[in-house]
Design brief:
Strand content: 25-35%
Number of strands: 14
Order of helices and strands: EHEEEHEHEEHEHEEEHEHEEH
Number of domains: 2
Strand order of the largest sheet: 10-9-8-11-12-13-14
Shape: globular
Radius of gyration: 20 Å
CATH class of the largest domain: Alpha Beta
CATH topology of the largest domain: Rossmann fold
Distance between the termini: 26 Å
């Protein structure tokens, strides 16, 4: 039993929070978190947290802005209840793609969200596979960025894919894809997007690397609409791959993503449970691996003052 530790959750991912508590062998903290008819969010912590080490598990997933407000209000609630230390556990960090000014007069929303979490009263943040590593630097408080790399790679190591090649679907994910490929002792291929003429929306996909006759494994940090993913699948099919798998940490699956996956030549898509998979989005092609033991062990180590980084050594 871990003394002085409390874990709470909003409505974003109750199942993950409960699994983390099961791993830690502690009960999930009792709290009321709901919306009034005017859409104002109400939070009430229903147990004593004075001087306790409080962890609030809340991925900022759909409905994104509601999840964010629940997190901020919960942080404020436990701060005002005299919690000793408050850690925001945000397995999926929303607005991570808005991490820089890439055109005039646009915000850096990832920085804004980091400021909001800090100002609300969080003393520390735990997250998983940020879309952009520099987001850690947006915080003025400690950030522990966990990775699903080892969980995902172990799954495919056990599958023993025939003659695998790891494919980075764009240049931005190349470094992480290379690390994943090293874990599987597989070569790396990259899909390069090229503009055709002056038409902004027309792209030609060029596959850099040898993929013919191999089992392709597309690696990314998240799958949103699956548009880029299914384009990559078509490009690989033209190059004569044997089978195609895909894997990522965050399965957002917005709009028609699941329909696109089901209609594609993908054999299997493997994601983690940083985001809950709604019942209407479940598919025989989609496999979900839990990160509850990883996040739970990180919480245990933070609470006891031992190294989190040692988890990945």
């Amino acid at each position: 039993m871990l003394n002085g530790l409390s874990v709470f959750t909003g409505n974003a991912h109750l199942a993950l929070a409960q699994s983390i508590c099961d791993y830690l062998e502690i009960p999930l903290g009792k709290a009321d978190v709901f919306q009034f008819s005017n859409e104002n969010i109400f939070v009430k912590i229903n147990e004593n947290v004075r001087q306790r080490d409080v962890f609030i598990v809340q991925p900022t997933c759909s409905p994104v802005n509601t999840s964010i407000m629940e997190l901020l209000i919960m942080i404020d609630a436990v701060k005002r209840a005299s919690a000793g230390r408050i850690t925001a556990v945000v397995p999926y960090f929303a607005y991570a793609r808005t991490d820089k000014k890439d055109q005039p007069r646009v915000p850096i929303t990832a920085r804004l969200l980091a400021d909001l979490i800090t100002v609300a009263g969080a003393n520390r943040v735990v997250t998983v596979d940020l879309h952009a590593g520099q987001i850690q630097g947006f915080f003025s408080i400690p950030v522990d960025e966990l990775t699903a790399l080892y969980t995902l790679s172990r799954y495919f190591q056990d599958k023993r894919l025939a003659d695998p090649v790891v494919v980075a679907p764009d240049l931005g994910i190349t470094k992480k894809a290379r690390n994943f490929a090293e874990r599987l002792h597989a070569p790396l291929a990259i899909i390069e997007k090229r503009r055709v003429g002056n038409m902004d929306r027309v792209e030609e996909l060029n596959v850099i690397g040898e993929v013919s006759g191999k089992t392709a494994l597309i690696f990314d940090d998240e799958i949103d609409t699956a548009g880029s993913l299914t384009q990559a699948v078509k490009a690989l099919e033209k190059r004569g791959v044997r089978e195609i798998y895909a894997t990522c940490t965050h399965g957002v699956f917005s709009n028609s993503a699941v329909e696109r996956i089901n209609a594609s030549g993908l054999r299997e898509v493997v994601v983690t449970d940083t985001i809950p998979l709604a019942s209407e989005k479940k598919s025989e092609k989609i496999t979900v691996l839990t990160l509850a033991p990883l996040i739970g062990e990180a919480i245990r180590r933070i609470q006891s003052g031992t190294s989190v980084g040692a988890l990945f050594q």
